[in-house]
Amino acid sequence: MAAMNLNDDELPHLQQTLSLPAGRLGTTEDLGAAVLYLCSPAAAWVTGQCLRIAGTS
Predict the structure, then answer these.
(1) Owning domain of residue 32
(2) Domains in the chain, number
(3) Averaged pLDDT, 5-28
(4) Backbone dihedral angles phi then psi of residue 41, each to the nearest 5 degrees
(5) pTM of this structure
(6) Cβ-based neighbours of 22, under 8 Å, separated by 6 or more
(7) pLDDT for the residue 51
(8) What is the three-class DSSP state of 8?
């Protein structure tokens, strides 16, 4: 995880330390899924919203 200057083998410890509600760190696929939704016809009535993609409630 380059943004946090960690090696891949350090991620399990980080996930356990953070006690994330989703049980894992977010991925580029998580963000991409939100972008895909917002660009699709399914989001035609979504306006003026801040979409929080954080894996928490």
Answers:
(1) 2-43
(2) 1
(3) 77
(4) -60, -25
(5) 0.60
(6) 55, 56
(7) 84
(8) helix
